[in-house]
Amino acid sequence: MNLAESLVRSARAYGDLPGLAVGTEDRLDYAGFARRAGALGEGLKRRFRLAPGDKVALVMRNHLDYLPLLYGCWWAGLAAVPVNAKLHAKEIAYILADSGAKLAVATDDMAETVAAAAAEAGTRPIELLVESSDYERLASEAPGSPVEQAASDLAWIFYTSGTTGRPKGAMLSHTNLLAMTLCYFADVDITAPGDAMLHAAPLSHGSGLYALPNVAAAAKQVIPESGGFDGAEIAQLLTRHRGVAMFAAPTMVSRLVTHPAVASSGVPGLKTIVYGGGPMYVADLKRALDVLGPRLAQIYGQGESPMCITSMTKAMIGDRAHPRWEARAGSAGIRQSTAEVRIADAEDRPLPTGEIGEILVRGPQVMSGYWNRPEANAEALRGGWLHTGDVGAFDEDGFLTLKDRSKDLIISGGSNIYPREVEEVLLRHPDVAEAAVVGRPHPDWGEEVVAFVVTRAGTSVEEAMLDRLCLDQIARFKRPKVYRFVPELPKNNYGKVVKSALRTRI
Where are the alpha helices (DSSP H) in 350-418? Predict the structure, then answer.
């Protein structure tokens, strides 16, 4: 089975329905969407001599051709490696080298970054710009039929940061993504042909994953002209398109409901906002319901189990008369249809309802493992269960409440930031003896990064120097917003930094 067949199916049944739009303008119907994807797939095979199983990195902002390229990769039997366009060139170089991508496709704004990354990556992938004449020649190829794929064949390598500070590539098969697609319909939202999916969040992550069920249902895929999240633009698009769903981080939802354009125009075209990627505080959820009405659904998942662990439907969240609504509103919902979810102790023994432990998951949506990471696989998938690193508890009604997140993870604007990655960069400065990074609440972004720094005896370091060091090595959104210079870091008897103590000082 090949995920590209779902696009073929929609194009055959609903070929005249709008398939792709940019801003307020419909660009391609579903027949044209499928034709372009097939042509790009054929072009990738022929012009770059790519064979089934080869990797193609998509280093692109949200763009009209993102989804045709993604489906084109599958059409040709290739594995897509969507890359966060906000990453630093050094981070992109690591992903290119680690995945072994043979081709890196970039939008024009990413051209210099991708060129620098490709030069640094040992694999030296071919570079292709979407706006080039070479690219347009690909789209002129005559499409054949999608390559036959086994259900277990690799479709998407989802790079997600880990506690080691280096990203790991979660291997997602066609079966994994089909399970996610079916769970969307069963557990998250219902989509009809002619509805729309608005991609204000990155297509390299959650929004791209949720394109799959919406393509299978023949919903129009809408790319904002800005390529991202802009409250005024979204308000305008919600007056132009109908039956609109969108995936958003909780901070995006909060920014949307307080935007003047939403207050003045309302959201007539909005059907559903699916939020995830971080917690939504109950007070913020109440405010969003007051403004948007019962149009909010929630998912909890990870790249290793894409969008598929637990969820709450619009009906659950909107049922404010339920006697346990407050508790449910603060939860992550109930397990999704294909997911087995267990709370376990340190020895992986299941815990009873109400007790707190690590959240374990198994099912057809769970990755087969990390690319080239046998030791990480043995740890993450021991006993046949995905160990999420998150801590939570089930209540008697089956609602899962997250008590903590993966150790020390910071979520800012829906993006994951792992402290060790930032700490390792800070420690490159010769006068930095120790560094510890934690998150603190931020009204707009959810959290922001705070760095505690101990300098070597007799030295001092300027914040600007550390900021420059970070900007040279990691993505801008990961750098500390605040620096605290301290004489020592609090530690326990084993010499481990006590970050809970640091959080009381911010």
Answer: 374-380
Burial class (CB in 10 A: 0-12, 13-18, 19+), 433: middle
* Alpha carbon separation from 29 to 9, 19, 221, 419 (Å, rounded): 14, 4, 10, 44
Q: Is 399:327 a contact under the CB 8 Å cutoff? A: yes
CATH class belonging to 4-390:
alpha beta
For residue 123 the two structure tokens come to 């694999």
Q: Which CATH number fits domain 410-503: 2.30.30.520, 2.30.29.30, 3.30.300.30, 1.10.287.1040?
A: 3.30.300.30
Distances (CA, A) of 93 to 57, 88, 104, 161, 236: 11, 9, 11, 15, 37
Mean pLDDT for the chain? 93
% of the chain beyond a pLDDT of 70: 97
3-state DSSP: the chain helix, strand, coil percent, rounded to 5?
35, 25, 40
- Alpha carbon of 100 to those of 92, 94, 114, 169, 372: distances in Å? 12, 10, 15, 11, 10
- What residue type is 283 in one-letter code? A
As a whole number of angstroms, the distance between CA 29 and CA 35 comes to 10
Model confidence, pTM: 0.86
Please name the residues in contact with 251: beta carbons below 8 A apart, sequence gap of 6 or more.
Answer: 278, 413, 414, 444, 445, 446
Q: What is the arithmetic mean of pLDDT over 86-114?
A: 95
In DSSP terms, 402 is beta-bridged to: 392
Question: Domain spans of the chain?
Answer: 4-390, 410-503
Quote the CA–CA distance of 501 and 383 in Å, as a whole number: 34
Which one, of 474, 499, 471, lies nearest residue 484 by Cα? 499
| Rounded distance between C-alpha atoms, residue 68 and residue 61, angstroms | 14
